[in-house]
Design brief:
The complex is a heterodimer of chains A (268) and B (251). Chain A is α+β, with helices and mostly antiparallel strands. In chain A, 57% of the residues lie in helices and 9% in strands. Chain A has a 4-stranded antiparallel beta sheet. A two-stranded antiparallel ribbon of chain A has the order 1-6. The radius of gyration of chain A is 22 Å and the shape is globular. Chain B is an alpha+beta fold. Chain B contains 7 helices and 10 strands. In chain B, strands 2-1-10-5-6 form a 5-stranded mixed beta sheet. In chain B, strands 3, 4, 7, 8 and 9 form a 5-stranded antiparallel beta sheet that branches. In chain B, a hairpin with a 2-residue loop joins strand 7 (185-190) and strand 8. Chain B is globular. The chains are: A alpha+beta (268), B alpha+beta (251).
């Protein structure tokens, strides 16, 4: 292969605001998830409704019987010793190795979480505004109607299942499942995280009582906050797997410099 | 075998090094100071969207009451004075109101019961994450402070309590914005009955737009001050002094 041919496959795919937001979020979400797990450790039970405390029914509990860690989901108990509920002689829901800081310090975890929340929320607002005005949302992220047809979706699901990622011209754009994942995270999961986080603040409930109506009470908001965080963690895991499968060097370069090398078409 | 460095041990070792390096950064005093910038931003922003003292905490219906409202913190203070007061139904107990006031007060429980009251069904949110809904009846703090002739120099209201926690006397403080909020009351009844010892008899604070650790129980003395410096650890509350809890607990 000669040099000019290789250059022809190099395209400018990721604009600067997207790259900046991506890396700020990568750090922020790590801080939020780790400090969030630390805060959860203070009361590792989740409820639905307006109130919920130890005497009330919890739909999720991560705790321990002595040295046996367990996760109880709607009454079904799973033994999770060494991972959740009890790990390394510490009886916390999430082990200290994954919390921020790596010691039980509720005030400091809250300090980090609420500082990170400003970055996450303001970043989301600016990025949402940018995406609409620059048409990044309409051009790159929202799936086209033909991409949402069951046949197209099914074809993309099969391609993903076989780990056949788009190549050549098709790799210029995000694929349908990728677009759906990004739009769900940007348009649903992140706003849910931010708003349910605000709903847990007694001051915000006084200022914006509609938050409680929207989420069905403070404890429901806390449960939804946890589930949305789980969705983000799942997204990050799949996202990192896809980066590795699609070629980590090329993907990292495109998210740092903006330049992405189109993968060669497969020989038929 | 001790000299053998396996790949697994190297990974674990470097992981542990990274963790401790991270912890030095995330727990450093300078980091804690930096985080207070965000804390102040949160307080200012929340005061702005709450329009100062205007916005009311949500109030609930009787049907929303928690079936069991858990007792938290101290459940029975053990200091001799308190035990004696509790044994006599707080008949000789007096609430002291002093500091930057024109007329220091000594109020009996009977006087507090006879004063105009406010009743509210509100949600108690613990910093740990749980919530309980209860009905509180008490005297608006603002009325007591006006009665005592609060000085315009006063910036903070400090609540000195009868209980000790973590080996120190419990105390808390709020600023004058929250002190004159209509839902900020000195509660003497809960769910229609005189306050139980577990929930802070004879008198506890309800400052409804903040978290549980601000809701001081077993109040003995209310002091109006210009600054929190010099009172116990100087950070405005027991949890603030001993465990770095945020003084403003609106979130």
């Amino acid at each position: 292969m000669t040099e000019p041919e290789r250059d022809a496959t190099l395209i400018y795919r990721t604009r600067l605001p997207v790259r900046i937001w991506h890396w700020i979020n990568a750090v922020t979400i790590l801080v939020m998830v780790m400090s969030g797990m630390a805060i959860f450790n203070a009361h590792p039970r989740l409820y639905w409704g307006k109130f919920g405390a130890n005497p009330d029914h919890a739909w999720l509990e991560i705790s321990n019987h002595g040295t046996v860690g367990f996760v109880n989901v709607t009454g079904i108990e799973f033994v999770t010793t060494g991972w959740l509920g009890y790990a390394g002689n510490v009886d916390l829901a999430f082990p200290l190795s994954v919390t921020l800081p790596h010691q039980y310090d509720l005030a400091l975890s809250r300090g980090w979480h609420f500082a990170g929340a400003w970055v996450l929320a303001l970043g989301w607002l600016i990025f949402a505004g940018y995406s609409i005005f620059s048409r990044h949302l309409q051009n790159d992220l929202l799936p086209k109607s033909e991409e949402l047809k069951p046949r197209a979706l099914w074809a993309d699901i099969k391609a993903h299942a076989r780990l056949h990622l788009p190549r050549g011209e098709a790799a210029r754009r995000y694929n349908p499942l990728q677009k759906i994942a990004y739009v769900v995270i940007l348009g649903l999961v992140l706003p849910t995280l931010i708003l349910t986080g605000l709903t847990m603040s007694p001051a915000m409930d006084a200022a914006w009582p509609w938050l409680l109506t929207l989420f069905g009470g403070r404890q429901s908001a806390r449960s939804l906050h946890f589930l949305a965080a789980l969705a983000i963690v799942t997204f990050v895991v799949v996202h990192l797997m896809m980066v590795v499968l699609a070629g980590p060097i090329n993907e990292l370069r495109s998210m740092i410099t903006g330049w992405y090398r189109l993968p060669q078409e497969r020989d038929q | 075998m001790s000299g053998l460095i396996t790949r697994r041990n190297m990974i674990l070792g470097s992981g542990a090094l990274m963790l401790s390096g991270c912890d030095r950064l995330t727990t450093a005093p300078a980091t804690r100071d930096a985080l207070t910038i965000a804390e102040r931003a949160t307080r200012s922003a929340q005061r702005l969207v709450m329009r100062g003292r205007s916005a009311l905490a949500p109030e609930f219906a009787a049907a929303d009451l928690s079936p069991v409202f858990r007792v938290n913190g101290t459940s029975r203070p053990d200091n001799a004075d308190y035990v004696r007061h509790a044994a006599t139904g707080f008949a000789d107990w007096r609430l002291t109101v002093d500091g930057l006031v024109a007329r220091p007060l000594q109020l009996s429980l009977a006087q507090l019961h006879a004063a105009p009251t406010r009743t509210q069904i509100t949600r108690h949110d613990c910093v740990e994450g749980w919530s309980a809904i209860g009905q509180w009846t008490g005297v608006p703090l603002g009325a007591v402070l006006r009665h005592a002739g609060l000085s315009t120099r006063a910036q903070y209201i400090v609540f000195h309590c009868a209980d000790t926690l973590l080996g120190e006397t419990y105390y808390e403080s709020i600023d004058v914005v929250d002190a004159f909020h209509p839902q900020t009351i000195l509660a003497h009844h809960m769910n229609g009955s005189p306050l139980s010892i577990g929930h802070g008899a004879p008198l506890r604070l309800r400052v409804e737009r903040q978290l549980g650790y601000k809701q001081a129980k077993y109040i003995m003395r209310i002091e109006a001050v210009e600054s929190l410096a010099g009172i116990h650890g100087g950070k405005g509350g027991l949890w603030e002094d001993l465990h770095g809890y945020q003084w403003y607990a609106g979130i």
